[in-house]
Each structure stands twice: as structure tokens, then as C-alpha cells.
Design goal:
The protein has a two-stranded parallel ribbon. The protein is mostly helical and about 550 residues long. It has 23 helices and 8 strands. A hairpin with a 5-residue loop joins β7 and β8.
């Protein structure tokens, strides 16, 4: 059906919009704004659920420890790490999905796909006796939720004019990131009740004290850990319908999507391709009995990225091959690489610390660290005054997500790079400080006395990373044109998402060796390096693009 109003978008169906001119003020005010904001407000809860399903293993692993699942702390850290690397790998194809399959088609299907890991995780968690690989498989599957961020941000960037990019993307990402906080609040709550009755199985009994946002839950309490997965079904079903009936495909951005069935086939095909390198790399990385343990993390991450890109390039065919080749052109622009590093500072830190913090609180502050007869520190004695991770871990991600739209708004006013510079400096200082506090706590018989400082400093880190997310969105929106900005946003978010893999592994390894502070000092060194890079590219006198 064609519109007779020249200011209105021309449609080929109720979902497909042919004429889209957000930089035209008349078009934007009369018609574009309404459509853009409708797509944004549907995108936000869909993205929120994606983050919740992706990040839920950070909370589930803590409760598995409390319920006496027969796995070591190191094995439980691998579950959060696997979810992290899977979500990051999924973002690589997701960066290209909007152009290939259309915004409405992509967001609908990737939201509906979250039902599989949610239900599968609920089933697996009813069986303490299942092998570790079964839970690792569910963590891998949950990575679909991590991939959704790249497609969501690429999609929303196409709806808004450049002057509103920072604000719009900050709202989408910031409110979407509340999925981490929502998950950290909702999961401990739903585990306390038989939410689905006999349908969801029998409860288990807590062997160690647990908690939720209002305090401690004592050992011996019945717990429905399976609800950590099942609960998301209640929101994912109506949300999927809302995406299908309320969102749009912009034909100016996605001209060759084909029918919805063809678009879905493209999405499933590319996502399936991304799972292949993720599984292969994890098999090489993970220790026996799950994997071979042949490579370390610093080899696994770049190998996974290169493999995913190579598989996508070689396996694409027909018009898909041409579109993928066009979008690969972003790798020839130096700003793609500079912004990738800067986005690691912001989003990489946010999602990495979100994944690692609950188990870190449990391991560092849940134990009294006392020397044995030979003066060697032991980390096995339960701390009776331990703070519950479930009571406090949500605060940092909440602050980071809440402040993210503010970062976008400030950056629209002042310029993105100056905001990035300030928050990078703050993160250098806060990382060093939190590392020192972790060192003190991990050598104390009463580590809880250091917890207020630990939590306060992590809140500073989360706040700075949240503001920086908004500033980097703004910078990308200004530097790149409309055709490139979406893929660049997707790509940078994909690489930064490896923080969800790296942070749990690095912090877990350093806790195991008794030096948790080394992890934070390493992060501080990286932030300092990126502070110099941001100044060189965007703030010095002869900068390539001045304070975008």
C-alpha cells in the first residue's frame, strides 16, 4: 500500500518501510519520530530479556555452590566464562543481521530464540547428578542472548538522526542493560517459591546460606533453582509477539531481506555458523574432562574472533555474500579499531564485572582467610558474617545501566571523546583502589570489614563504564555514516562482549593463585593505555576527528 502523504514513509506492507529520511526535519517531526520511538520502546524490553538470559549464569553458579552441586569453584567459573564467550561470538554475525534480514524480522526471531536456553536451563538445573558438560552446553546456548545486543543496537541506530544517536542508543543500551540487574534481583526471588507448581519439579534444600536483595536466606530452606531459567518464559512469549506486530523493517537499510521465512533462514544459518568456532575454541581451551586444555584465554579469544569472521566470509552465498563483503569494509577504517578498544573499556568492563562479581563476592568475602600451623593462608573456613552476593551484586550493574542514557545525553552536548577521557581516568584510579582492597580482604580472617570499600569502588567502576557506553555510542554515530555506523556498533559490541569471558577467567585465576588484586591492576593498565589512545585519535591538537 502506498502513502499519498509525501511526509509519510512509503510502505510495502504493515511492517516494511521504503522511504526513511530521519535527517529531514519535516519528515522526522511529522512521521519518523513516532515510528522510531515505537521501535525503540519495543526494542528495550526485548534487549533486557536478552541480557537476562545471557547473564543468568553469574547468579546460577552462586546458587549451585550453595545447593551443593558437585562442581569446584573453578568449574563453576567456566560456566560464566562459556556464556560470556558464546554471547560475544554470537555478536559477530548479529552485527550483520539487520542489513541481511531486516530489523523486525531479526529482533522477533532472536527474542523468540531465547525460549530455548531458558527452558533448557530450567530442565538441567533439576538434576544435580547431571555431568558438567550438560550445564556447560546450557551456558553456551545462553549466548544467544548476548548476541542480541549487536543486532538491537545496529537496528536502533538506523531509525534516529545523528543529533539523537547518543541519546537513542544510550536509552536502548542503558535500559536494555537493566537485564543484568533485573536478572540479579528476579532470579533469587523466583527461586524462593514454587512458581510453576508441580510442572517445574521439586525444590532442593540449601546447604549453605543464600540471600536476596532484602537479606539472608538460611541453610535448610527449600529452593527452586530451576526457576532461574523457567521464569523468563513469562516475558519472552508476549515480547516476541510484540516485536512481530509492532516493529518495522527499513527497506532503505535492508533492501534484500526476502520473505520473513527467507530472513529467518539467514539468521539461523549465520547463528549456527557462529556456534561452530565457539564450540571448537572452547574444546581446545577448557580443561579435561570437557575439553583438551591446549590453549590459554589470550589465544582462545583472537582465534575465536578470526574463526567466526572466516566462517562467515566463506560460508556466505548469493546476495548474502555480497552484503557481507560490503559490511566487511569497516575493517579497513582505523576508527573501527580505535573505537573497538575504547568500547572494551566501557561495555567490556560493565558486562565482565557483572558476570564475575557475584561469585567473586562469594569466594572472597564468604570465606575467613586464616593461616594454618605453618603460616600458610587457607581459604576454606566459612565466614559467619559473610555478605550475600544476591543482596549486593545487583547494585553495580543497576548504577551502570541507569546512568548510561545520561552519558549519551552529556556526550551529545559536550562531545563523546572528552567524556570518554574523563571516565577512563576515573576507571584507572578505581581499579587500582579496588585491587588493593581485594588484596586486604583475601588475607583477612574478617574480610567483611573491607566489603563496604570494595562495593563502593565497584559502583564507581560501573558508573564510569555506564557513562562511557553512552559517550562511545555518540562518537561512533558521528564518525561513521549511516550505512557503516550499524555494523561498527555491532562489531565493537561483539569484541567488547568478550569481557564477559575474560573478566571471570582472569579474576577466577588470580583468586585461585591468592592474588586477586593482580587482575584489577591489569585492567587499570589497559584503561590507561586506552586513555592515551583516545587522546591521540580524538582530543589532541591535530586529531583526525576532533572530539566526536
Amino acid at each position: 500500500m502506498q502513502s499519498t502523504n509525501p511526509a509519510a514513509p512509503v510502505r510495502t506492507s504493515s511492517a516494511d518501510v521504503i522511504d526513511w529520511r530521519p535527517e529531514d526535519d519535516t519528515f522526522w517531526e511529522s512521521t519518523g519520530k513516532k515510528i522510531a520511538y515505537r521501535n525503540l520502546w519495543i526494542s528495550v524490553p526485548a534487549l533486557l530479556c536478552g541480557f537476562a538470559v545471557w547473564g543468568m549464569w553469574g547468579i546460577i553458579t552462586v546458587q549451585m555452590l550453595n545447593l551443593g552441586f558437585p562442581f569446584t569453584q573453578a568449574e563453576l567459573f567456566t560456566l560464566t566464562a562459556i556464556a560470556g564467550i558464546a554471547g560475544a561470538t554470537m555478536r559477530i554475525p548479529a552485527s550483520f543481521l539487520i542489513r541481511l534480514a531486516g530489523g523486525r524480522n531479526t529482533i522477533f526471531l532472536t527474542t523468540a530464540m531465547l525460549l530455548s536456553p531458558a527452558i533448557g536451563t530450567g530442565i538441567a538445573l533439576q538434576h544435580k547428578d547431571w555431568p558438567l558438560w550438560a550445564f556447560q552446553l546450557m551456558a553456551l546456548w545462553s549466548g544467544v542472548g548476548g548476541g542480541n545486543f549487536a543486532s538491537s543496537m545496529s537496528n536502533i541506530s538506523t531509525f534516529f538522526p545523528k543529533r539523537l544517536q547518543g541519546t537513542a542508543l544510550g536509552l536502548n543500551a542503558g535500559l536494555g542493560n537493566f537485564g543484568v540487574t533485573t536478572m540479579q534481583i528476579v532470579i533469587p526471588l523466583v527461586m524462593t517459591v514454587g512458581l510453576f507448581g508441580a510442572f517445574a519439579g521439586e525444590p532442593m534444600t540449601l546447604m549453605k546460606d543464600s540471600g536476596w536483595i532484602f537479606g539472608k536466606i538460611v541453610a535448610g530452606t527449600p529452593t527452586w533453582i530451576q526457576n532461574a531459567g523457567f521464569a523468563w518464559v513469562l516475558s519472552l512469549v508476549p515480547l516476541s509477539a510484540l516485536c512481530w506486530f509492532g516493529m518495522n523493517n527499513l527497506k532503505t537499510v535492508s533492501p534484500d531481506t526476502g520473505s520473513p521465512i527467507i530472513a529467518f533462514a539467514k539468521i539461523i544459518y549465520l547463528y549456527s555458523l557462529a556456534f561452530v568456532p565457539a564450540i571448537a575454541i572452547l574444546y581446545l581451551y577448557l580443561p579435561a574432562p570437557t575439553g583438551l586444555g591446549l590453549i590459554n584465554m589470550w589465544v582462545a579469544v583472537p582465534l575465536d574472533v578470526i574463526s567466526a569472521l572466516l566462517v562467515m566470509r566463506l560460508a556466505a552465498f548469493g546476495t548474502m555474500k555480497e552484503n557481507v563483503a560490503k559490511q566487511f569494509k569497516i575493517f579497513g577504517d582505523k576508527h573501527t579499531w580505535s573505537m573497538t578498544l575504547l568500547y572494551i573499556v566501557t561495555f567490556g568492563s560493565f558486562i565482565g564485572f557483572s558476570m564475575a562479581l557475584p561469585l567473586s563476592i562469594t569466594v572472597i568475602f564468604g570465606i575467613s582467610h586464616v593461616p594454618d600451623a605453618n603460616g600458610v593462608l587457607q581459604h576454606t573456613l566459612k565466614n559467619p558474617n559473610a555478605p550475600s552476593a544476591f543482596t549486593y551484586a545487583w547494585i553495580g550493574p543497576f548504577v551502570g545501566a541507569a546512568i548510561r542514557p545520561v552519558g549519551g545525553w552529556i556526550s551529545d552536548k559536550l562531545g563523546g571523546s572528552i567524556v570518554t577521557q574523563v571516565i577512563s581516568a576515573a576507571m584507572v584510579v578505581a581499579s587500582i583502589a579496588v585491587g588493593y582492597v581485594m588484596m586486604q580482604a583475601y588475607a583477612s580472617a574478617t574480610p567483611e570489614q573491607y566489603f563496604p570499600a570494595f562495593l563502593g569502588l565497584f559502583i564507581v567502576l560501573f558508573a564510569a563504564s555506564g557513562i562511557g557506553n553512552g559517550s562511545t555510542f555518540r562518537t561512533i554515530g558521528v564518525i561513521f555514516d549511516r550505512q557503516q555506523a550499524g555494523p561498527v556498533l555491532g562489531w565493537t559490541s561483539a569484541i567488547a562482549a568478550y569481557g564477559a569471558f575474560i573478566a571471570p577467567v582472569v579474576i577466577g585465576q588470580q583468586i585461585k593463585t591468592g592474588t586477586p588484586e593482580i587482575a584489577m591492576y591489569g585492567f587499570a593498565a589497559f584503561y590507561a593505555l586506552c586513555l592515551v589512545l583516545n587522546w591521540w585519535f580524538y582530543l589532541r591538537a591535530n586529531a583526525y576527528v576532533k572530539n566526536p
